[in-house]
């Protein structure tokens, strides 16, 4: 992964501070001194192709996940203002369309980036009488981007299923799916995260977590050494209903995979910690596809969907591979042990006898590979 700044010491401090914090310490995540940039990003910033990077195939600027859109709609503006689906598609991934524009050097069209969740984009252009028109439009996401990531199984979906994924596309849900790949979370999230909790929530939640012995009630991972990663979930989704039967202790990962929790973010380091502990505690053994999806990072679901559709065997999740010359074992997010094939959410490492791919490499590998009988 491309990261311009080394934040490890900051993160170490955040972790120390967060040790006794309950559910959300997200506010500390984006306040890293570049608040001005985050403010601007929320409303939209002009971007140069050179500044745009890709994090495992997902568009990124300065360590932040971003969306790319074209405000200038020319003569299409009238239609697009009436119906956003008539407007320019916005991009979320390093799709083939962006590739094509890079090759043709046709990137001078004025692009903007944003990480705003609203789905409403500021657009402008000229109407039939050449008058200047501007407003906001609910633009559609680019299908090529969705296929590139196999987002929600888009690459393997039928035309009508794919249209449905486009129609239902929610930016916040998309961001949260890949949140563990990014070091800086959207500013907007900080204000959303604390909404709706009762005033005594901290003590209620601390109590439930203690009673659970810091073990996730779904995946059974023991979080005694990372207590703040144990959340308390409201089963009926009513954050003010703290009756005991409504509360259950879940690890941050199981929590965000609960239905209707598509908007919960998890930091990369936290996901690594949960998966490391799951691996060390051998929480999962011999699982099926549903269990694999339950425990794997959401950003891996595109790859998992490809593998399942194409008949591969079920991989191990969070496998710790001992590598000579490395002080700590290498965490393979997904591993096919017999084939010595693994996927990492970090820079791939050379390990003799093993094939180790990044997420983006794996998406392209499994996306292209038609069918395999060997695995
Ligand atoms: Zn695209
Ligand atoms: Zn769990």
TrEMBL record:
One of its GO terms (molecular function) is zinc ion binding. Residues 203-256 form the HNH nuclease domain. Pfam families: HNH (PF01844). InterPro entries: HNH, HNH_nuc. It comes from the Bacteria. This is HNH nuclease domain-containing protein. The lineage of its organism: Bacteria, Pseudomonadati, Pseudomonadota, Gammaproteobacteria, Vibrionales.
